[in-house]
Design a protein that fits this description.
The chain has 322 residues and is of the alpha/beta class. The protein has two domains: 3-52 and 119-321, TIM Barrel, CATH 3.20.20; 60-116, 2-Layer Sandwich (Alpha-Beta Plaits). It is built from twelve helices and 13 strands. The strands form three sheets. Strands 7-1-2-8-9-10-11-12-13 form a nine-stranded mixed beta sheet. A two-stranded antiparallel ribbon has the order 3-6. Helix 4 (122-130) runs parallel beside helix 6 (154-166). The chain starts with a helix and ends with a strand. It binds iron/sulfur cluster (2 copies). Residues 63-69, 107-108, 110, 112-113 line the site of one iron/sulfur cluster (SF4).
Length: 322
């Protein structure tokens, strides 16, 4: 019996399938974004991905005032509030009342309301990914499963990977690695490569910046590099947050690379990419009505990024700007 056939109806939460991505591993790729994450990085540019349930985004500038959402909302979460000295009326969502049923998004034709996240089967994902097979073959691309944190939906991830491998599709996993090693072991036969986030070197800084310390994350990376899988490291560069960690990160990665080489896996850390902080997530924080912890932070300059890349290269690592 084909194992994928047995598990293709496994369900999981995703919030996007993005075709023709050139920033998520080698070649042209389809990036599948799993919803839900077990870290809370202060600079997260996908805040809509964090929770394991749907999110409701509201873009008031697109609202045409048709009133449909007021009519359909079962909890009365759409309300008019008055602001300023003149009591200017404004349409807002009472987030405490909203149950994320997303009924209002179905009646909003202006695009002012958008639901993020839906439950789908592994088969749905695999069929979507398969539609671009010719592009993968031409570009040495494939599928990248990302998030959120894709490793925290292990059964769904396994089923999607099994379906992709059955169709001969190259598979990459984009993870922050904060899961038990067992989760990696289970998918190793189905994963061609890993994109692995390293956000800080010291456990204290990692906990302050992401909500979790990094002992398990680093141990998992050491094991992964000795497994023979291709590994690309991704280091976000966020001025004022983790830029003070770069020297520690460079030393840590050099040590892991040496250790893998001694175990017979020279160049296990194939590439280290530095990801400059960007402001594309700002409008999402507004649409979700949550505070942006990086408000006022500006993207790093080319000089800062080049210096970071040079530092990593000086430790014998193959580094570049993403
Ligand atoms: S998602 Fe549901 S509960 Fe929330 S505002 Fe829309 S209709 Fe109301
Ligand atoms: S349904 Fe959409 S366009 Fe109509 S009032 Fe609600 S948010 Fe505005």
């Amino acid at each position: 019996m084909n194992p994928y056939n047995e598990i293709k109806h496994t369900k999981g939460f995703i919030f996007n399938i993005q075709r023709f991505s050139i920033h998520d591993g080698p070649g042209a790729r389809t990036a599948v974004f799993f919803k839900g994450c077990n870290l809370r990085c202060v600079w997260c540019h996908n805040p809509e991905s964090i929770e394991f349930k749907p999110a409701l985004e509201f873009y008031p500038q697109k609202c045409i005032g048709c009133g449909q959402c007021f009519t359909v909302c079962p909890t009365g979460a759409h309300i008019i509030m008055r602001f300023g000295e003149n009591g200017e009326p404004r349409h807002v969502i009472d987030r405490k009342k909203c149950t994320r049923c997303l009924k209002c998004t179905e009646t909003c034709y202006s695009g002012a309301l958008a639901g993020v996240g839906r439950e789908v089967t592994a088969e749905y994902v695999v069929e979507s990914v398969k539609s671009d097979l010719p592009y993968y073959e031409r570009s040495d691309g494939g599928v990248t499963i990302t998030g959120g944190e894709c490793m925290v939906q292990p059964d769904f991830l396994y089923a999607v990977l099994a379906g992709c491998k059955e169709s001969g599709i190259h598979t990459a996993i984009d993870t922050a690695g904060n899961v038990p090693w067992d989760y990696f072991e289970r998918i190793l036969p189905l994963a061609d490569m890993f994109l692995y986030d390293i956000k800080a070197a010291s456990p204290e800084a990692h906990e302050r910046l992401t909500g979790a310390e990094n002992t398990r994350i680093i141990e998992n990376l050491r094991r992964l590099c000795k497994s023979g899988r291709r590994v690309w490291i991704r280091v976000p560069y966020v001025p004022g947050f983790n830029d003070g960690e770069l020297t520690g990160i460079a030393d840590l990665l050099a040590d892991i690379s040496d250790e893998a080489a001694r175990a017979g896996h020279k160049n296990a850390l194939e590439l280290v990419e530095v990801l400059p902080y960007h402001k594309l997530g700002v409008s999402k924080y507004e649409a979700l009505d949550i505070n942006d912890p990086t408000e006022g932070v500006e993207p790093p300059s080319d000089t800062e990024i080049n210096r970071a890349v040079e530092l990593l290269c000086s430790k014998g690592l193959n580094a570049r700007k993403s």
